[in-house]
Amino acid sequence: MDRKRAVKFEDLIAWQKARDLTRAIYQATAKGSFAKDFGLRDQIRRAAVSIMSNLAEGFERGGRAEFHQFLSVAKSSCAELRSQLYVALDANHLSASTFQQLLTQAEEVARIIGGLRKAVHTQRLQARTSTARAKSTQSSVLSPERHEPTLR
Q1: What structural domains and CATH numbers belong to the chain?
Q2: What integer pLDDT is reported at residue 30 of this predicted model?
């Protein structure tokens, strides 16, 4: 598989899919009784925006550890959004088909974020292992005990 390295957050497939989900959430919450349920409407919109925002902010931080943390928050916001979709369905703000479409999108975003989070975690572990090996090699090579000439 030929993967292009993301240079900016907009390159992330997770962010692109989260953007699509956010657009769909805004459209669904602008209609009918959902538009009048200000609390739920605003909360589900905030959760959708949070997914996108945490992906962007974490990516821009530059460090793997921080990116991993922001990915965890984005995935949690995705779970929050899915839970709110059930509330909207139960309150008859969404048809079964719209609910299913939005739920499927949210599950896809969560899977992608989960995969990205796992990849970042693996990279962090590999970087730690490489750093530890390099320090070990460096200390044995630079150790004064090993490189001082033996006096006879």
Answers
A1: 9-132 (1.20.1440.60)
A2: 98
